[in-house]
Amino acid sequence: MNNKIDINIQTKDRIGELYGLLVSLRNQTYSDWDLYILDDASSVPIQSNHIISCILQRLQIEGHRVMVIRNNKSKGLNSARQQLVDFTLNKGEGEFICRIDDDSILELDYLTKLISVIDKGYDLASGVVPHFAHSSIKREIKFVSPIINQVSLDDKGNFVLNCDDCGHEYLDSVILPAHHFRSSALYKKSIHKKVNYEYTLTTCGFREEEFFSFRCILEGFKLGVHTTAIAWHLATPSGGDRRNNYQDLSIQNQRLLNRFVKAKYKEHGDFIKSYNQSLKVSPNIKQSINKNNNLIYSREE
Q: Which of 64, 71, 278, 282 is most open to solvent, judged by the fewest CB atoms within 10 Å of its CB?
């Protein structure tokens, strides 16, 4: 079985952050991966930076295929992501794609743990994403309730994600089912035979993970999170857009998410509930129903 991973990194004017990510990649316990970077019109090309150039050369010497694509004019975050996904699907040699934000720092066993999620029968795998914007909070597995990253409807009629992993570290190691994956996720390339990745993105890229995840669920794929696979984020994971009108974009994207999910519910019924009921939970995870008829997962004592 080909377990090679094609690492995708899209970057723009983040030399320091990119260096930290590349160092964390080089030190991974899992070494069967190649690297594809899209320099989306950085003011100074990343390969002209001596430190970046040196570490890319070192990665090549150590057996990794390294390719850098340079856009001289940026068409925007989403266009760049789509460009890199398409390039990797056509030119990459791996069975998996792992798209990583350029301001992430992976703990040493991150890729190893994501592969272990795939080995458990999941099609998409992600870790947890505590960020350096504030101190991370330690929590125990038994307080993860319900499924990690559950989608719910708030009292204003908005679809929201209960993102249990943001800002949290876990005291125990377990693989849990999820409704949607976080950034720095690993998934099978074969998924693209049924699910297009980036073609319905909003203008700023806030919602592509939810859209992609829901489409995967509707096609019968399973999403899993490894609770101790840590991808530290130098900023909040939802802050990848660099424009100043962040709040306006958030409102716009909430509207788009509501429209998207409501359309899927109208077409397919309660596909999230069906997904919950179809999941096979690990033997050391207890499944129960709470008073709101939601599935609850907790660790066996």
A: 278
